[in-house]
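Hey all, sorry for the wall of text incoming. These are the four entities for the joint prediction.
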Amino acid sequence: MTRVATTLKDVAKLVGIHPATVSRALNPRTAHLVNPATVARVRKAAASLNYVPNPMASGLRTARSHTIGVVIPDLTNPLFPGMVRGIQDTLARAGYTPLLVNTDNDPEVEAHVVASLRARRVDGFILATARRDHPFLLELSEKFPVVLINRVTESGQFPSVTTDEMHGIRLAVDHLVGLGHRAIAHIGGPAWSSTGHERAQAFSRAMKSHGLSTARRMAAVDAWSVESARDTARALLTAQPAITAVVAANDQLALGAIAAGRSLKLRCPRALSVTGYNDMPFMDIVDPPLTTVRVPQHDIGAEAARLLLSLLRDDAQSPVKHVRLTPELIERGSTAPPLRGD
Amino acid sequence: MTRVATTLKDVAKLVGIHPATVSRALNPRTAHLVNPATVARVRKAAASLNYVPNPMASGLRTARSHTIGVVIPDLTNPLFPGMVRGIQDTLARAGYTPLLVNTDNDPEVEAHVVASLRARRVDGFILATARRDHPFLLELSEKFPVVLINRVTESGQFPSVTTDEMHGIRLAVDHLVGLGHRAIAHIGGPAWSSTGHERAQAFSRAMKSHGLSTARRMAAVDAWSVESARDTARALLTAQPAITAVVAANDQLALGAIAAGRSLKLRCPRALSVTGYNDMPFMDIVDPPLTTVRVPQHDIGAEAARLLLSLLRDDAQSPVKHVRLTPELIERGSTAPPLRGD
DNA sequence: TTGTAAGCGTTATCAA
DNA sequence: TTGATAACGCTTACAA
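and here's what came out:
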């Protein structure tokens, strides 16, 4: 269990030069300052000794950890692993390491984990926690490069990577209207959620553009869970029996809506069509296979990482960038023409 | 974007004492060496300045990063997020940070990511990559505390956290036999996989203990994927039409077996019963709901982290520990009595 | 109980 | 083009 780490000094001794020169030779940004022949000898010696720079030493000296804080609600929510891999893959290629933490959608936990990441001296943050309030976001962004995932603020003042929620929800609504549905309801996300909020707005507009009413057909859940959606959808479907289709704000809520329908003898898709959002893994083999709006999870993560890396490079304050990706509709078995129009 | 970090020196100046004393006062392991009154003053001053120790500085000095390398095949495989959260939650409480990397089941990638974790000076490793060969495992374990997840070596020489595969597979076989099945097949994992290997062995023994034959009823897939399982199961079911039930080595393979049966007009569960292994998210709402062996994902991760932490504490070489957790059978809709015995 | 001082492995500044 | 040196912030003998 002995840890023998070779250092710059060891390499220097082997080559017979000063450690500082070894440092310069090995660092791509300073290698041009040193005699190419020496660089070659240093490289060879370093390789032969399995020299690997100590990131704690260089981090201490340079005040950069080459580490990025990644804050998500919950890794076991199937929406996130794809995004996290996009982040990991992209950061790794640039020599950065993500430090991943979960908030469980609890603002206090979020404050705590962000503090712990700051204690770890991360160089920047990727935040995938889509709350509408953002108590410490402004302060954080003054001190660190921050990229928001799946979430923007009203002011658009923070760099972000999002999908076009308006477009995604419109795809779902258009699809249902195309099938002949008129009485379409929305099961929205929790009130504190920014994506939930946006998708509800998008639903309103899409319906309006078709000249359809949303009155008494919009409900919001307490939590992004199948159970919460089941209760909410059940109440809504009971109160508004004319409803023939539901646009849910994400896949879990769609599954809840389908379960609610089933409990009311409204089989999906015959008596009730339901669309989801996200296209989580296995949504193609649930019963019935879920028609849903697919968001490019890996791409979102990759773009967020790229954006943050560019922020890390530019000391100059370039204008705040927003990357917007386009979702697509995946038509499966949970949607069908209504039994009868109304 | 100015980074102002307070240091020990700042705190010392405020209190009017030497930085070394501040260090001692703030470190729980040395606080007893310092006057309680001073400790109190230091704590107050540190809090007022928002002092947070710089882990790069202390890490450089102590040669410990308080960081753990966690190596998994692929985060987007639903088996792993639960385990990772178990690891994260447990390590965080002990002040350790996991560094998560994926191998995509590629030994070369694995070698690369392990090297990058060593470069980052992790204090130990949790390896969830269940290959039967282990080229660098011995060397790695000589230099670092290592805990294996979901995998043991024949010699049992490395600390590990596993589930009782023998028991889990037996639960599935007993369940099917109890339903009246006799011609039970096994769709096994890839040849390189240690869990695949063990579950196949477990299947053989469980069948033997019931006096049932496994001849020509065991196949292995090329990869842990639904597609690979579909092809393998299709071939097996075509060649051995008497088969009435399949024990799959994991949930994906079970889904593939169900799809294969469907393509052969063998509806699950009426004409073909299928069991899975792991109980991934949403296996309760696929079509049909999957009967499967549930492994306690979060617990596995948590136990692995605990075990590694204990290794980190004990310099003494205590005997190699193996934690074995017990899986349970979750009976759902993919299993039923056979149409007719044989 | 506290202070002193050295050093962990790098990088950056300055001088040669 | 290279060498010398100091410093990053912390911990830990050792001395007082």
